[in-house]
């Protein structure tokens, strides 16, 4: 840094309009962050992911809780095959009788699919699900641990 005779750094004059207030990479990063927040990318299979999902485990079961706003029981299907739980469905756009002019359209209407690999200790025959207020709760009970039967064997004298 150079200083002028009065001890201050020299003033650099630039033409109006060419001054950059912010770092362009910071601005680009901000725009990209906003883009990813506003856009929910489809998964590799071409379907859309459904809402936020929590997976918890207790001593007796695993539980998957997922938000599926706007879906009814008829809109959602789930099943298991080869150790994989698949949840799929569709959030359908409401049918209106007369055409309407949309000012803002922020809701998404699309098919979705999500898969989960099941742990070996899940009892597939006892899986259950419920839907309440747009929240799907799937309970995956654990298998009862089979303990080897203990047997006392008497020793015979020969």
Provide a descriptive summary of the structure in words.
The protein is 9% helix and 28% strand. By secondary structure, it is mainly β. It has a domain at 25-95 and 109-141: Immunoglobulin-like (Sandwich), CATH 2.60.40. The strands form two sheets. It has a four-stranded antiparallel sheet, with no helix packed on it. Strands 3-4-5 form a three-stranded antiparallel sheet, with no helix packed on it. A hairpin with a 2-residue loop joins β6 (128-132) and β7 (135-141).
Summarize the topology.
Blueprint: H1 24-38, E1 53-57, E2 61-67, E3 76-81, E4 84-90, E5 111-117, E6 128-132, E7 135-141
Antiparallel strand pairs: 1-2, 2-7, 3-4, 4-5, 6-7
Domain SHSP: 44-158
InterPro entries: A-crystallin/Hsp20_dom, HSP20-like_chaperone, Small_HSP
Protein name: Heat-shock protein Hsp20
Short description:
The protein is mainly β. The chain is 9% helix and 28% strand.
Total strand count, please?
Answer: 7
At the first level of CATH, the class of one domain is Mainly Beta
What would you report as the Rg, rounded to the nearest angstrom?
Answer: 30 Å
The number of distinct helices, counting runs of at least 4 residues, comes to 1
CATH architecture title of one domain: Sandwich
Unreliable parts: 42-47
User: Might you state the CATH topology name of one domain?
Assistant: Immunoglobulin-like
| Structural class determined from secondary elements | mainly beta
Instruction: Give the overall form.
Output: elongated
Protein name: Heat-shock protein Hsp20
InterPro entries: A-crystallin/Hsp20_dom (IPR002068), HSP20-like_chaperone (IPR008978), Small_HSP (IPR031107)
Organism: Acetobacter tropicalis
Family: Belongs to the small heat shock protein (HSP20) family.
């Amino acid at each position: 840094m150079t200083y002028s005779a009065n001890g201050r750094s020299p003033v650099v004059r630039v033409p109006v309009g060419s001054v950059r207030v912010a770092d362009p990479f910071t601005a680009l990063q901000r725009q990209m962050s906003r883009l990813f927040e506003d856009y929910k990318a489809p998964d590799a299979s071409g379907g859309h992911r459904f809402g936020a999902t929590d997976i918890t485990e207790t001593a007796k079961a695993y539980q998957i809780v997922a938000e599926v706003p706007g879906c009814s029981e008829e809109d959602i299907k789930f099943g298991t095959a080869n150790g994989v739980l698949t949840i799929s469905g569709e959030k359908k756009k409401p049918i209106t009788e007369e055409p309407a002019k949309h000012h803002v359209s922020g809701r998404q209407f699309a098919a979705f699919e999500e898969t989960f690999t099941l742990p070996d200790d899940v009892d597939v025959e006892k899986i259950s699900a419920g839907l309440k207020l747009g929240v799907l709760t799937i309970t995956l009970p654990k298998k009862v641990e089979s303990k080897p039967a203990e047997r006392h064997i008497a020793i015979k004298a020969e």
